[in-house]
Amino acid sequence: MKDVWPDAASAFYFDYHARLVNTVISFLGLLSNIFHFSILIRKSLRSSPVFSMMFVICICDLLQLLTQTQNDIKYILEFNQPDFCLGFDTYYATALTLTMETLGGFSMLVSSCLVILVALFRSLSIKFAMSKWSSTLAKTSTARKTSLIVIIISAMYNLSATHFKYKITPKSDDAFCAFSFYTGASSERRLYSASDGHSSTNAILLFTLFDGLIQIFQLIVFIFTSLILSRFIKEASSMKMMKSKSDRQAEKTEGLILFTLCSFFISTFPIIIANFMLPLFANLQIIPLILIRTLTISTMLQTINAATHGWVCLLMSSQYRAVAKTAFSPDHSVNAIAPAVEPSNASDG
């Protein structure tokens, strides 16, 4: 195994330089999402079910970017240290890393579920517009209750996964430290790792199976909602002369949801493929370098996705632009302009 790791050095250096770029993206994304948060908190947007769920997604994006920035900066600072040992660290640093990973996983699960659900609710409301329950899906109260349920379930799931899958264990004398071997460094510190070696096979299989089911569900919903939203936008575009202001607003809302959904899957699809392939190499001594690079690129794409939600809303939603304009214009009030940009059915977003 030792004679294989030096060949993987290029993958480690690729990851290192990717983290440098990712740190810049995360920092810019934090600034962008702070602005995004300041717009979504406005009363005229909080009454919309779509933007109500976007508000929760924005908070998750901030949490994801903060945890990713912390992990990247820590990795960058330690990478060139002579005692850097990939996969091992001091006890408190390992505990912090595990905490950040849990928070990052929680924020990713919440935001991904809400992106899928907001598209699903909108699609069902269009597909079954004449049914009574479709109007329930279009209510702001439904969006808020759904967001709360997703937050609670995601928190319970991620805490359970961390508890059953990982445990901070000291580094054994015969444990191989990939990067310190390559650089010829050896650490005199007492090192630990967040190991999953203590977990039962059943627990690992259960969480792996559940993660796979979530990803399959997301893929099915993505195909279903994309077809419905695309068809709605195409049909609406063919009747421009007959559309009222509320119809045009609804069309733009569907466009916003579809664009957000597509950007989400562009960022997560590589990691879905990698996660399905990783078990195939579980019994091998080395993971193919293409998978390592795929996971690195996927992390960058997820960071870009989390950093740009505010810009997507600004470009795709006239209602969002109007509120953003009034938020920084002392000569106008939000309440004065909101009725002009909101559709007659405010729940449509």
TrEMBL record:
Signal peptide from the UniProt entry: none
Alphabetized Gene3D superfamilies for the sequence: Rhodopsin 7-helix transmembrane proteins
A GO MF term: G protein-coupled peptide receptor activity
Protein's cellular compartments: Membrane
Pfam families from the UniProt entry: 7TM_GPCR_Srw (PF10324)
SUPFAM superfamilies reported for this sequence: Family A G protein-coupled receptor-like
Protein name per its UniProtKB record: G-protein coupled receptors family 1 profile domain-containing protein
